[in-house]
Predict the structure.
Amino acid sequence: MTPDPSPPVVPDGEGSGEDAPAILRRQSLRESAARTYARALPIVPVRARGLTIEGADGRRYLDCLSGAGALALGHNHPVVLEAIRAVLDSGAPLQVLDLATPVKDAFTDELFATLPPELAAHARVQFCGPAGTDAVEAALKLVRTATGRDGLLAFSGAYHGMTAGALAASGGAPAVSVTRLPFPYDYRCPFGVGGERGADLAARWTERLLDDPKGGTAAPAGMILEPVQGEGGVIPAPDGWLRRTREITAARGIPLIADEVQTGVGRTGSFWAVGHSGVVPDVMVLSKAIGGSLPLAVVVYREELDTWRPGAHAGTFRGNQLAMAAGAATLAYVRENGLAQRAAVVGERMLTRLRALAAQCPHIGDVRGRGLMIGLELVDPARPDPGPECPEATTGTTPTTGTFAGVEGRADGRAARRADGGTDTGATARRAAPMLAAAVQRECLHRGLIVELGGRHSAVIRLLPPLTITDEQAEAVLDRLADALDAAIRALGDRAAHELPPPGPPFTGGHR
């Protein structure tokens, strides 16, 4: 374990070790059973700065949760605190509904300066309720109003929030007028082939389904996707697939909604994750980091879609002036200091080291990510994944009959994948190991490292450090993670070889 270079400092009378257990007990007695992070992370934060959180017991933790990705600059960054103090000292109103203010104007200027130029030149912005799920709801209502259609295209493994419409678009939730499409997932490819071939088949599936008059798909008002699936297990959308998806939707007049709630503001190594592929969506859903650690959510969209009547979508707290000031300061700091590029460099170093660790540790099935959005999928090396039941090829048929033209059977697909020089992911994927992942999370906490779990079976260790993380801190994070993984494997022993993924939908943090 790499020690934290800074010793804990707890002022007299504040944050004593005796306070923490009592606070945690009261929380368990008084708070809802729906609480999530508090169960896996039984700590009581009292101070924080940058990457570091200090608990009431005096212990210090390296925080790679970052408020579920909301803290682009880490905790209490000076530029954020200065922006908040300036508003407080000015005597300006803190809550103004949707009235125009200088603070809001400055935030909008800074936001538009970061958008893809083709979108920013002809864009409108809708200030929503304070959470990302509110922005998703607004985006869905927007495209339905603009197109006059009710259907929605979404993807397996998606997570878009906890309200009714957002849940309908998320993986594992009841779908009402939602058509679920396959998302490219190299390690567990839905077609059993992985790589470019798997991504191509996913795009072809979408294209054929939309063009099938008997496909049973409700006329789509829009398609919503994450450029990197977060809760789904840190799965980056291949750039080529994303460009093809943009072509498919544009050719059919289907608005494309990019959910950048977690991927935005430099997190993936581009200011917005769609920048990696050069795709310009019709709608962007933004929250988390755009508020500089305070609640703020907006929808940015092409002006042609702005067919709403006044009051068609509103929210009491859409005029949060402190969040707009903190958000403008964060956006400017990330842009002016090249933190997206910095995230790409540091993230690639971390991925390289983690891949070297995976080469020596069979319990790591896959390492993936983009920028400082990183995931390690933990598996049972002794248990192959049965994999998908890939439909066999039947020329001229469509997904509605359970078969799909051009999709090879699993054996043929794997052979083609090997012939292309790719990894035989369909044959080598192993059963997910959620028990091991939970043990690693606990061992990390014991070593002063906070990480999140995600993925289809909560078997993916997720790292979301702030973009301000130093090289030394990045090494400390990986040292602690490697030590925790080794300890968890040794502690579980043979028990990990008999675990099964939990039934039903996976646990999610429900950040929205």
